[in-house]
Design a protein that fits this description.
Shape: elongated
Distance between the termini: 139 Å
Structural class: alpha+beta
Radius of gyration: 31 Å
Number of helices: 3
Largest sheet: 9 strands, mixed
Oligomer: single chain
Order of helices and strands: HEEEHEEEEEEEEEEEEEEEEEEEEEH
Number of strands: 24
Helix content: 10-25%
């Protein structure tokens, strides 16, 4: 029998060696976990930043486009003359009467304006006549509201002169070349380079590729337009378009994230405001706050003020600063957010407890700020004169 040499016997690990190996393994595992956790957090942060930037671009794009279109009324530049309101319920303020008793409205007051949300049901100043702040998805106190009105660029020409029995007559129906999908109760504009009328569609019917639109009373003041549109000298210039009246605000979606934080969104309320079948539309989530500053022209100075400032005059608005605070859905930051953000020139500090539009929550959600300034291109120069009150004539 051959005996095994002691030098060839298998040796095990000593306790010290085992402890050293385990320690090195734990160090390596800790490092790997730290790297994995860091990569995961970095990935979440990059995803959140991409989502916030995409949502902000969409929101600012929609708001900026509407501001640029504010007061658009077709061929007639709003700085040379305002539309004549024939509708009996249009959201354009009555400012007085002509010498013949004709009501006079001022499109300049509501074409680009705003308000501050003092409470969910209290907006100051009153945004537009006939509008009631929403109960569902209510506005966040401290945030701002934007309202714009204009004629849509999705317009149509007319097939011929407006007539009754073949004779040009402003009481006759409007026959469009294209189908604008206007329905009874919708507001529409008919315009050429000399005249603009805002009317309510009282009846609408398909007519070939276009529509036949009625504008009779009582939905309109008297059923007659202010001009004989479609005559040979203006038919090429005459266009019909939908009247757009949009209100934008930051509201509570009723949703919460994993830790119970409120989720807010940008909402759009279009005319008609009081129609239960036309509730506010949610445009994009993740917008925690919106602030506005309105550029008011006083002589040769452009001064930016908020809508509740004593100097605010919607007839003098020439540009609007729009500021948004975007926030991630869940908490992804390592520390609570103690930053003070500036949007539209206004500071938004952190709050330990419940935050409103005056502050932001001091939580672990990630936030980004976006600001832009938009020129109101269709502001007319004589808007101050037009907004002065004129007493009605004596009976």
């Amino acid at each position: 029998m051959i005996k095994q040499s002691p030098a060839l016997k298998a040796k095990g690990m000593s306790l010290v060696e085992l402890l050293i190996a385990m320690t090195l393994g734990l160090i390596l595992m800790t490092g790997m976990i730290a790297v994995f956790s860091g990569n995961k957090r970095s990935s979440e942060l990059n995803t959140a930043m991409a989502n916030l930037q995409e949502n902000a671009r969409f929101a600012l794009g929609a708001l900026s486009e509407d501001v640029r279109m504010a007061a658009y009324q077709g061929c007639l530049d709003a700085r040379r003359g305002s539309l004549i309101v024939k509708s009996a319920d249009a959201p354009v303020p009555l400012v007085g009467f002509e010498t013949d008793g004709t009501p006079r409205h001022d499109f300049g007051i509501t074409s680009a304006t705003g308000a501050v949300v003092v409470a969910a049901n209290q907006w100051e100043p009153a945004i537009i006549g006939g509008f009631t702040p929403p109960v569902v998805n209510p506005a966040i106190p401290g945030t701002h509201v934007l309202a714009v009105q204009y004629g849509s660029t999705n317009d149509s020409g007319i097939t011929g002169p407006i007539n009754v029995g073949g004779v040009p007559n402003p009481n006759g129906p409007i026959v469009t070349e294209d189908n604008l999908n206007l329905q009874p109760g919708d507001l529409a504009i008919i315009a050429n380079c000399d005249n603009v009328d805002l009317f309510t569609v009282s009846a609408a019917a398909i007519n070939g590729n276009g529509q036949t639109l009625e504008h009779t009373a009582p939905r309109n003041i008297d059923g007659s337009l202010s001009a004989r549109y479609g005559l040979p000298n203006n038919i090429a210039q005459t266009r019909v378009m939908r009247f757009v009246s949009n209100i934008y605000y930051i509201g509570d979606t009723g949703l919460e994230n994993d830790t119970g934080d409120q989720i807010r969104a940008l909402y759009q309320q279009s005319f008609p405001y009081d129609d239960p079948e036309n509730p506010p539309s949610e445009l994009v989530q993740g917008i925690e706050n919106m602030r506005l500053s309105f550029g008011i022209r006083t002589q040769n100075t452009l001064r930016y003020v908020t809508a509740n400032d004593p100097l605010f005059d919607p007839a003098r608005v020439e540009s609007i600063q729009i500021g948004l605070i975007m926030t991630s859905w869940n908490a992804i930051a390592e520390q609570d957010d103690e930053n003070t953000y500036v949007i539209a020139g206004q500071e938004i500090p952190p709050a330990k407890n419940s935050a409103d539009g005056l502050t932001h929550a001091e939580d672990g959600r990630y936030r980004l700020v976006f600001n832009t300034t938009v020129k109101v291109r269709n502001r007319r120069e004589n808007s101050v004169f037009m907004s002065q009150q004129v007493a009605p004539p004596s009976p």
